[in-house]
Design goal:
With 905 residues, this protein is of the alpha/beta class. It contains 28 helices and 36 strands. It has a seven-stranded mixed β-sheet, with helices on both faces. A six-stranded mixed β-barrel has the order 23-27-24-26-25-28. The radius of gyration is 27 Å and the shape is globular. The two termini are 47 Å apart. The C terminus is likely disordered. The site of iron/sulfur cluster has 14 residues, from helix 6.
Length: 905
């Protein structure tokens, strides 16, 4: 078929980059950045530029599947039977236990039209406010921050403000990894305007710090103290905008009383920084002509998330740094359409059009628009509360859409117990391989990126029209269509004989109905339509009827959507994070992101290329902390919190401070037995109800797991993954990942105290294709050592090392190189940590630094050692010349004059 291009957007982070999808009408063949999209002007990061390599069909949900008993396997069914069954179970549950006995848990991945359909289903048809989104884990503290301080959940800035600002403060965000294309814009702006100051506030020294003039490595959770300390200095030095405060704000007197106690010495002590650093930070904030703050999960995922957001916004109000170019508080959203969810009211406490579910007038307005007598009054359950109520048996039917709570919610043991106990779990999902999928009684296959149409709103309030390039595979359907179809069937039970509330055939109809609920509200987007977006391109709300362009900046007139029209200073004292270090749990566990993975890895975890930079779950500890605990990089340890434990390998990493530990958030139970969120805590902010995923008390215990296992198998990685992961369940430590590019492979590392039964290895060998054919084998049953290497057409295609795995790195490198020299063959099964002739050095597995150009870490190090600078490396190796995601790390290596190129495990 003819090659075509369809304009759409990236489905990962909230930057909302425009993407051109190349396809032939049936398959997606490639992607490139959309040069006309104002979010990215043609740029994509390492994740966006590999979108076409993700979403392996073998991982997709293709047909509805149903089981009629918890102990049974799901069987394929048809859509009519599936949705009729779901409608009758929901109707029966509602009839017997009331509308609040069912719940919907949805996602920032959904399109606005999908969200709207779910909201109307829950509130207007079912009559419950039990609809919450995974945005609760992501942005709900920012929502509260904006609403309390400024009057509406509306980020006031535009991306162009990054380029116009004189002082940019990045707080609690590894922007270089989490919002890379915006970070590139900032880097370029800084190169053009070197006088711009960049302050990074983060407990870790991340790649984002590469751009920082000042890095404040504050103690985790101490942000409110820091912001109050900055305000203390702003007031003391007179670095405030008195006329702005007088004309446009309220509440400074009370706040002044509070921050009087936040003296520089006290704050420096609370935050673990120097007084000089604090003073420098306050001076730049207070004296720069324009001041912009950017933040993400470091502020939001906290028991004091709302207070942190408001304390930061206080700085903008005190300095009048809002509503003008290069200035303002600007949250970076984690998901592609978290904003659309907030607009459509997809958190339990909201209603469409930035309304409140607790507000009788708002309920009446929406009920009248939807032509239903009333909307439910009883408060809905937020994510953590919702799963607690599932666990307690109050929620008896749960509909999960496009999200993976068995990976992403904290306190996983309770979440999984809840999912296991819930009488009826529906999962509407594009991927059949997520950690949540085994809990589904009914699995409904959903269309995914490139396969559905609708709209998304990015961090700067810009709405893009997402277009469909190819049909969804199998019987998968767009999320809005599944929801509407289910609602129409449920109506027959709940509103027999009445006109349908869900007469939608196209997503544009949902958008047109939704937009009228924004008319006259702060986010008024009633002037937009899918057709207008096609005509004008992506637009920023408000965009009222009759507008000809969107609104780049809010509050330029100093009038805020509060009752008084004035912005509010919020005076709340610093409260430490819930779990402080103590004798039992002496380390603080911080979670965060990897450069090339996204959230729960249901999509990025299908592309081997995206494991090139970081190939497995590693717990980062400072070298001094390792020494203090008599541990070494590569050791396996039992990492324990008050809720659970995981066994994980250690990495030496001086970017974390002693007393802290860092584990990426992405690794769920599929990739690391147990998954990171068995450790994290469900305690949440009292206002935003966002859990403190970023901060848990942990301890490390040494483990003795002498029996080690390593396997590699090339090809059909998803099928191998699904077959082999359950066979590893008995091992104490299990880590799975992918490797390679053109020839992807599945890798397994495992360990346990005792060797497994020989039969288990035979089962594994069967799936690895090591039970027959051209296989080199070695067995020493007395020592429980067994090795297999399969060689086909002169190259390795599968490896299994059991009991002794010294050769795993160089065998993996041989596989990657696609050759086995005749002289090496006799040594493939030997207990050698390096190939003969390599002078005993353990080469380590190769790490890819630049994913776009496939340039290894060791090649960059060699280039630096030969005297190349950044420009020289770019020219000779090509690294850093495409998406630029690797540039901060290359700069760090240059600055360090190349530390040893060894991998840390
Ligand atoms: Fe996608 Fe990267 Fe752009 Fe985020 S920055 S939207 S992940 S391409």
């Amino acid at each position: 078929m003819k090659r075509q291009t369809t304009a759409s957007t990236c489905c990962y982070c909230g930057v909302g980059c425009g993407v051109l999808i190349e396809h032939d009408g049936e398959q997606i063949l490639g992607v490139s950045g959309d040069p006309t999209h104002p979010a990215n002007y043609g740029k994509l990061c390492s994740k966006g530029s590999t979108l076409h390599l993700t979403g392996d069909l073998a991982a997709r949900a293709l047909y509805p599947q149903l089981r009629l008993g918890k102990g049974l396997a799901r069987a394929r069914t048809d859509w009519d039977s599936a949705l009729d069954h779901a409608a009758s179970v929901f109707a029966r549950t509602i009839a017997e236990h009331g509308p609040d006995s069912v719940a919907f848990y949805i996602s920032g991945q959904l399109l606005t039209e999908d969200y709207y359909a779910f909201n109307k289903l829950a509130r207007a048809l079912v009559g419950t406010n039990n609809i919450d989104s995974n945005s609760r884990l992501c942005m709900s503290s920012a929502v509260v921050g904006y609403k309390r301080s400024l009057g509406a959940d509306a980020p006031p800035c535009s991306y162009e403000d990054l380029e116009l600002s004189d002082c940019v403060m990045i707080v609690g965000s590894n922007m270089a990894y989490a919002h890379p294309v915006l970070f590139r814009r900032l880097e370029q702006a800084r190169a053009r305007r070197p006088q711009m100051k960049v302050i990074v506030i983060d407990p870790r020294r991340t790649d984002t710090c590469d751009l920082a003039d000042l890095h404040l490595a504050i103690l985790p959770g101490s942000d409110v103290a820091l912001f109050h300390g900055i305000l203390h200095l702003l007031l003391w030095e007179g670095w405030i905008d008195r006329s702005f405060i007088q004309a446009h704000t309220e509440g400074l007197a009370e706040l002044k009383n509070l921050v009087r106690d936040y003296t520089p010495h006290r704050v420096a002590q609370l935050c673990g920084i120097s007084v000089a650093q604090l003073q420098q930070c306050a001076e730049w904030v207070g004296t720069s002509p324009s001041f912009l703050s950017l933040w993400c999960m470091g502020l939001n995922q906290s028991t004091a998330g709302s207070a942190k957001n408001s304390a930061l916004i206080n700085l903008h109000l005190a300095t009048g740094q809002i509503g003008r170019p290069g200035a303002g508080p600007f949250s970076l959203t984690g998901q592609p359409n978290a904003m659309g969810g907030r607009e459509t009211g997809s958190l339990a406490n909201l209603l469409p059009g930035h309304r409140e579910a607790s507000h009788a007038g708002h309920r009446a307005e929406v009920a009248a628009y939807w032509s239903v007598p009333t909307l439910p009054e009883s408060p809905g359950l937020s994510a953590i509360e919702l799963f607690e109520q599932v666990n307690s048996g109050k929620i008896k039917a749960l509909w999960i859409a496009c999200t993976n709570p068995a990976q992403s919610l904290p306190d996983q043991q309770n979440v999984r117990a809840a999912l296991q106990a819930c009488p009826f779990v529906v999962l509407q999902e594009a991927f059949a391989t997520t950690e949540t999928a085994p809990f589904a009684d009914l699995l409904l296959p959903a269309a995914s990126w490139g396969e559905k149409e609708g709209t998304v709103t990015n961090s700067e309030r810009r709405i893009s029209h997402v277009r469909r390039a190819i049909p969804a595979p199998g019987e998968a359907r767009p999320d809005w269509a599944i929801t509407v179809d289910f609602a129409q069937r449920l109506e027959k039970h709940l509103r027999p004989g009445q006109a349908s509330l869900f007469a939608f055939d196209q997503p544009g109809q949902l958008f047109d109905e939704f937009k009228q609920l924004t008319r006259g509200r702060d986010l008024d987007l009633s002037g937009l339509s899918h057709a207008l977006l096609d005509h004008l391109g992506p637009q920023q709300w408000p965009f009222p009827q009759g507008a000809t362009s969107g609104t780049p900046r809010l509050y330029v007139d100093g009038i805020f959507p509060t009752t008084s029209g004035r912005a509010q200073f919020i005076a709340e004292p610093f409260c430490a994070a819930k779990e402080q270090r103590d004798a039992h749990f002496p380390l603080t566990l911080i979670t965060g992101r990897l450069r090339d993975q996204w959230h729960g890895m249901s999509r990025t975890g299908t592309a081997a290329q995206l494991f090139g930079h970081v190939s497995e779950a590693l717990l980062s500890l400072h070298p001094d902390e390792l020494q203090r605990q008599h541990l070494n990089a590569g050791d396996l340890v039992n990492l324990k919190s008050r809720r659970g434990s995981v066994i994980v390998a250690l990495a030496s990493d001086d970017s974390v401070r002693p007393g802290q530990a860092f584990l990426p958030m992405h690794w769920g139970d599929r990739f690391l037995k147990g998954g990171v969120n068995v450790l994290t805590q469900p305690a949440f902010d009292p206002l935003s109800k966002q859990p403190e995923l970023k901060h848990s008390g942990v301890r490390i215990e040494a483990v003795e797991l002498p029996w080690q296992f390593f396997a590699l198998v090339e090809g059909n990685v998803q099928q191998h993954f699904e077959a082999l992961r359950p066979l590893c369940e008995d091992f104490a430590y299990v880590s799975l990942s992918l490797a390679g590019r053109e020839r992807p492979a599945l890798l397994i590392r495992a360990a346990c105290a005792q060797p497994p039964a020989p039969q288990r290895l035979q089962e594994i060998d069967l799936h690895l294709g090591l039970d027959h054919g051209p296989v080199l084998a070695y067995d020493d049953s007395r020592r429980a050592i067994g090795k297999r290497v399969r060689i086909e057409q002169g190259r390795i295609t599968a490896i299994r090392l059991a009991g002794e795995t010294l050769a795993r790195h160089w065998l993996q490198n041989l596989w990657l190189e696609g050759r086995v020299d005749a002289q090496l063959r006799p040594w493939l099964l030997a207990p050698l940590s390096a190939p003969p002739g390599a002078a005993g050095a353990n080469p380590g597995a190769q790490k890819t630094l630049c994913n776009c150009k496939n340039v290894s870490h060791s090649a960059v190090c060699a280039g630096i050692r030969s005297g190349l600078d950044l420009q020289g490396l770019k020219q000779q190796l090509g690294c850093g010349t495409q998406c630029g995601s690797c540039v901060p790390e290359i700069k760090r290596l240059l600055a360090a004059k190349v530390r040893p190129s060894a991998i840390t495990s």
